[in-house]
Each structure stands twice: as C-alpha cells, then as structure tokens.
Write a structure and sequence with these properties.
This protein is α+β, with helices and mostly antiparallel strands. The chain has 4 helices and 6 strands; from the N terminus they run E-E-E-H-E-H-H-E-E-H. The chain has one domain: 3-Layer(aba) Sandwich (Glutaredoxin). The protein has a 4-stranded mixed sheet, with helices on one face. A two-stranded antiparallel ribbon has the order 1-2. The longest helix is centred in the N-terminal third of the chain and has 12 residues. The two termini are about 20 Å apart.
C-alpha cells in the first residue's frame, strides 16, 4: 500500500489522484489559516521553491477540526495562502484528519506513521514525509519547523 492508492479534491474542486506524484518525495501537511503555526506556510513555500526541481512536492490539506482554525471556504483559503504566503504548492479541499470521517489518505498516514498520540493527529501542521515509492517514512509534530526536516528531505531526494 502507498499514498498512490488515494485521491483527493484539489482546492478548486477537481479530483486528483496521488499517483500523479509517483516518483516524487512528498511532504503532506494538514494546515489551517488561523493557527499559531500558520506562519509555517512561509517555510513550506521556501522548501518547495528550493527542492521542487529535485523532486519535492508539498501537499497541503486544510482542516477545521482543531479549534475551528480553518473556517473559511475553499476560495477564502486559497486567497489567504496566495496573498499572505505566496503559496504555489498544491492546496487541497478541506478534509477531516481524525474521527469517523477521516479522509482515507490520513487513515493510511496515521496507521503507517503513528505519533505521540498513536494514530491520532495532535494538531494542525502535522507533517508526513513520503518517499519516492509512496511510503510514509516519517511523521513530524506540529511545532517542528519545516526547516528542521531539510536533512530528511535531502536524504530522500538523493535516493532514486
């Protein structure tokens, strides 16, 4: 099993198969516009600009399950990200990352990369690093700065 078995709606509404990212290193993040960690969008964009040509994709999945910190519409979320952080990496439609309506992708990610709360996602900006074969290899806490995972990203980018 890999992330390539899943699909999700991009923020403009079209269904996107994650198999479209096959062969790339992925950083999958549940995000929110009104969170104390929202400024991580800036670092995520910097990572994307630095490593995209070498094979990195960052996939952002807005989520409103943590203190209602992502209440906006898809259009509002997209405008916020583009205006405030100049985000150019893929934004997906809002998803649930915990509970009975958890998106299947996040069920897979939390089962294969448990965190401090086991299979539960602790908060916004939990990050999952996925290798070129679509396998989740590491999970990072919300407070982990994207800059602090550069070595892990570079190590995966070096592998075919």
């Amino acid at each position: 099993m890999s992330v390539y078995a899943y699909s999700a709606r991009i923020i403009t509404g079209e269904e996107k198969s994650l198999s479209d990212y096959e062969g790339r290193v992925l950083l999958i993040v549940n995000t929110a516009s009104r969170c104390g960690f929202t400024s991580q969008y800036r670092e995520l964009q910097q990572l994307y600009e630095t490593y995209r040509e070498r094979g990195l994709e960052i996939l952002a999945f807005p989520c409103n399950q943590f203190a209602n910190q992502e209440p906006g519409t898809e259009e509002e979320i997209q405008r916020f990200c583009e205006t405030n952080y100049r985000v150019t990496f893929p934004l997906f439609s809002k998803v649930n990352v915990k509970g009975p309506d958890t998106h299947p992708l996040f069920k897979y990610l939390t089962e294969t990369s448990p965190g401090v709360l086991g299979k539960e996602i602790k908060w916004n900006f939990t990050k999952f690093l996925v290798n070129r074969r679509g396998e989740a290899v590491k999970r990072y806490a919300p407070q982990t700065s994207p800059r602090r995972i550069v070595k892990d990203i570079e190590a995966l980018l070096e592998k075919p």
